[in-house]
Amino acid sequence: MLQLPPAEPGAPESEIDTPALVLDLDAFEYNLDHMAALLAPTGTKLRAHAKTHKSPVIAHLQMARGAVGQCVQKVGEAEVLAWGGVPDILVSNEVVGAAKLARFAALARIAKVAICADDPAQIAAIEAAAAAAAQRLTVLVEIDTGAGRCGVAPGPDAVALARRIADSRYLCFGGLQAYHGSAQHKRTHAERRALIDGAVEGARRTVEQLHQQGISCPIVGGGGTGTFMLEAASGVYNEIQAGSYAFMDADYARNFDEAGQPVGTFRHALFVLATVMSAPQPSVAVLDAGHKAVAVDSGLPTVWQRPDIRYVGASDEHGKLEVGSETTMPKLGEKLRLVPGHCDPTIDRYDWFVGVRDGRVECLWPVAARGAMA
Question: Of the candidates 250, 268, 248, 277, which has an alpha carbon nearest to the alpha carbon of residue 335?
């Protein structure tokens, strides 16, 4: 059920009902502008990942800054973006099931859409959906860049799938999906570079073999917030699929740059606003934000600009804080900002982004693709 907005435009941040998903608009807009500025000299385009934000509003803001489109992981997310006027969408994932593929094919009537495959049976199913809808659908071949998740082996196996797509009456070969997800969260720059060097080599080799077979490869896409400059500098990738950069979370903040310093390229813009609901002991406080309010799969949240307070445990409705001293003890009813460990699943818990600037609510944006699992 869609929840009522936790605030009204113009209200002070202190009056936002909690838990709430708060977006610092100044930091958010800086992140969008900064990504555009970083990619501009490389010639590589951004296809921002909407599985993070789940919002046509944010998609349009990214595209206004030069993004060529959006990518998503689910047909339901693609539907919400297409219905929201986003014109170019890649489902950067495999989709299995006739009903889902029929929904995907229907989107080709209102937007430019593409999808991924790593198996001949998937290609045949997409082809059947395209024929039934009287549409020509674009399909990318996903290659396994080293993460050991989805994807066919780079080289001849990928080329064979591309040939199958290119020879179809109802399909168009769109290129390669070459995302290395596990590389994003390796802490040192050297670790990330080693993994992405392997991904780049596999993609390069596959593109060369495609060209030898007379098959053009319009897109080589991948890269995330942790590695995008490596892919952008490769000379092989031409689309970057970063998503979390728009918000930043506590886990990405644990990555280090070449000098061994915390990566500070982007600013924390996304927070869970929570209220102190209990203070039962001198060094313990409890927030109204537990598992239901913030994802902890990538670690517990941090308390924004309060190094003296640690979020140490979560249950369904409660977040336990340890406070360094009595002099810094938060008061009952005090509101604190939490930086989530993982922004994507945290956002999926909420119906609204509450945009805040200079201490006041400026806007409310629906998390329109919340819960789009199919």
Answer: 277
CA distance 21 to 172: 40
**What phi, psi does 26 have (nearest 5°)?**
-65, -45
Q: How far apart are CA 297 and CA 22, in angstroms?
A: 20
Beta strands in the chain (DSSP E): 20-24, 45-49, 69-72, 88-94, 112-117, 137-142, 171-177, 219-222, 239-240, 270-281, 284-287, 302-303, 309-314, 319-323, 335-339, 352-357, 360-366
Give the tens place of pLDDT for each residue, 68-113: 999 999 999 999 999 999 999 999 999 999 999 999 999 999 999 9
CB 203 within 8 A of CB 145: yes
Q: CB–CB of 29/355 below 8 Å?
A: no
- Please work out, in degrees rounded to the nearest 5, the angle formed at the alpha carbon of residue 26 by the alpha carbons of 20 and 31: 100
* The overall pTM is greater than 0.90: yes
Q: Per residue in 326-344, pLDDT tens?
A: 778 999 999 999 999 999 9
Domain 13-20+264-366 matching CATH 1.10.260.40: the answer reads no
Closest CA to 355 of 3, 1, 5: 5
Among left, alpha and beta (phi > 0; psi -120 to 50; other), residue 114 is beta
Does domain 43-248 fall into CATH 3.20.20.10? yes
